[in-house]
Amino acid sequence: MRAVQGKSNPIQVVGLGQVCVDYVGHVPGYPVEDSKTELEGLDTRCGGPAATALVTLARAGIATSFLGSISDDPFGVQIVDALKEEHVDISCLKITPGHTSQFAFIAITRGKGQRTIFWRRGSAPELTPEEVSLDAFPNARILHLDGLMVNAGKEAALQAKQRNMTVVMDAGTLREGTLDLVTRVDVLIASKAFAEFLPGAGGSHQRALEKLRDLGPRQAVITLGDRGSIGLDQGGIIRQAAFSVASRDTTGAGDVYHGAYIYGLLRGWTMAQCMAYASAAAALKCMHGGGWRGIPGIRAIEDLMKELHHAGK
């Protein structure tokens, strides 16, 4: 778990969280209980919130490193190979022999591209706070957390603050300890489900954003799927419409949004610019599908933004 030391280390973004193997089945329609349906296709790919965001950044030429926990089982071997192929550094990835790595089965509905996820937690032990160290990344500017290893995330956020790094968090599910972790975050990007279950929000996205910012983040964003996203910073509310594309597979679109948003932060963009770029990236991911293979590059994202900008004139 030791990375290359020294100031020459090029890593700009460190991600801590989950990675898994996904079995993806395409179905004509989601079946009712106690019925049968024939798969129209089945493929295997890798996923996970933090890992997918890092792959998105790697596609944009950003040097990234993934901190997570897997085993040496066949799923773990596939994960290692996939991260290496995507040029994501894994020198601090925890691999515990004799356990299992996480995997999921995802049913993709034809036409809409919507997905239903069945997943199984791996038995590989989580990263502990004592195992977290950012010392190996002296030039890192951003720490990205997916909130799925709360205690390790808190320690990483503490270390990141000491290094003047920006802490970004993907808040997918509200669970025990999540709000405490949010207090250590600079930029929070939350799912619709997270916002709806936020105590005191009352179903209002604006109220949820206000409550989240009150906890500490200077920027808070809620992603709303095909309804776009809504954000709040010191300048007020910003709304970003979703880009209109034919959706093939929505799996990983939110994770791509996070990675693309971080790319904007690295470039020094405003929140509105980050949200627009991230929305375009997520739309292209929905259109392409294909797991990590479907993550768009910079030029494709910029071309879509220009295309829709010209169409709106």
Defining traits:
single chain; 313 residues; alpha/beta; UDP-N-acetylmuramoyl-L-alanine:D-glutamate ligase; eight-stranded mixed β-sheet; four-stranded mixed β-sheet; 9 helices; 14 strands; globular; disordered N terminus
Description:
The protein has 313 residues and is α/β, with parallel strands linked by helices. It has one domain (13-305): Ribokinase (UDP-N-acetylmuramoyl-L-alanine:D-glutamate ligase, 3-Layer(aba) Sandwich), CATH 3.40.1190.20. It is built from nine helices and 14 strands. The protein has helices spanning 49-59, 74-85, 150-162, 178-182, 192-196, 205-214, 253-267, 271-288, 298-311, and strands spanning 13-16, 20-27, 41-47, 64-67, 69-71, 94-96, 103-109, 115-120, 142-145, 166-171, 187-191, 219-223, 229-233, 236-240. A hairpin with a 5-residue loop joins strand 7 (103-109) and strand 8 (115-120). Helix 1 packs across helix 7.
Query: Strand count, sense and closure of the main sheet?
Result: 8 strands, mixed
What would you call the quaternary organization? single chain
Q: What is the number of domains?
A: 1
Compute the average pLDDT: 91
Output the number of helix runs. Answer: 9
CATH architectural arrangement:
3-Layer(aba) Sandwich
- What is the share of helical residues? 25-40%
CATH class: Alpha Beta
User: How many DSSP E strands?
Assistant: 14
CA distance, first residue to last residue: 52 Å
The coarse overall form would be globular
From the 3D structure, determine the CATH topology: UDP-N-acetylmuramoyl-L-alanine:D-glutamate ligase
The low-confidence parts are 1-7
